[in-house]
Amino acid sequence: MFGYLTSRPWIPLVLGFALVLGVGVITTLTVAASQTYNREVRRALVTLGAADSVTLSILEMNSAQRGYILNRDEAFRKRFIQARSDLDRDLRALKSEYAVLDLPEGLEEEVEIAVNDRLSAFNEINRMLTADDVAGAGRYSAEARLFTDNVRDALRKVKQVAYNRLYASQRAATAAGDRAYLLIIAGLVMACLLILGSIVLLVRRSGELEKANEEVRQLAETLEHRVEERTADLAEANEEIQRFAYIVSHDLRSPLVNIMGFTAELEDAQRTMADYATAEDSAVPPDVREAIVTDMPEAMGFIRAATGRMDRLIKAILQISREGRRTLTRDTIDLRALFEGIADSLSGQTDAAGATITVGDLPEVEGDRTALEQVFGNLLDNAVKYLRPGVPGEIKVTGEQRGKRVVIRVEDNGRGIAAHDRRRVFELFRRSGEQDRPGEGIGLAHVQALVRRLGGQIHVESELGEGSCFTVTLPLTMATRN
What we know:
transmembrane; two-stranded antiparallel sheet; HisK_dim/P_dom; histidine kinase; single chain; five-stranded mixed beta sheet; 7 strands; Heat Shock Protein 90; 3 domains; alpha+beta
């Protein structure tokens, strides 16, 4: 058999080509499936945006109508008409996504009924205003909040379906990518083995040895050149993504600042109206007074909370984008001194929580100081933030050098992480456990991105109710690439 192959060294090459071709076909199909999942992700995001737009349009109609009830300013009526037009557009956009969402039976009808009920209430209030029944319109407007809540509940169910589809599509896309990666690696390994076998056979043919070696060298040079080209393309694409995230986040802040500014003006106006409505000689009807003193602050409080959270998210995205664009530097860093500095900066939090941070002997490394401070500062801050109530917090930092790498562990006796949440804690905008601490689910995702940029890895071991141990593995001389 070996002699047969020696006389025909092209057989392993043909087998290798067929294998690479088969892997290419399977990879193409996998990539196509991944693109389908990505389209589903985009459709789910469109649905979420449409549902939020419907909610905002109804809230805008409600705000404009109540403003008209209070001062009969025609500007509020125009705002109401514009918001009504926007609502029709947003409803069409939302309904166009129903077909791909596979909504539970009756949910589409529930949304339709809730929206129609709210629109009927708007129409009834307009009828009262036309009949100069301002007091009745004000009372009915306050009572109609129930219809707005019904719309919110129905749309929240639609958004939950969209979220479920979004997460399912993301998981499927990730699985498809993993399969493609494994197929490519396996195909390349087997192809390399077959090519190696062919080379071994060609060695036995002394007359063709030099020619075969030259072909192999040329192939290696071509492959290296292609790898460099692909690497440059990926770096450029990554830069474009980061620049896009920065531009979008920056542009989102302008309308958000306007909303926050006008909300402050509305609060000032509400306080002025409240002083007038609560004066002893005030002739303001009780229901209007109730709306001014109670309903308006509550509504503006909701606006403040929502805009505040959006502002924090945009700032976090901007920070991640800036960090991704920042050029890493390389300095000699004493990790123990770095951790002790971070611990000192957290002394106020640790004293308030009754916790202690113990830093063991750690090696020196060469890397970007700012990136390391952000990585380990976030881990220590989380360890202090998520301690168990009533249990003295013990946070230990240990590490050692293993060959050309260093392993750092940040261990605590805090709340711990449930098994099903351990992988998801590194996902962007995902949080685990009780949501009783401030945060947007960005910190650990940012930490993982920084660790990867430095050429390292991070993983967590944790038991719910017992604590967590985050392990960071880094090269002694860290990368400075983007």
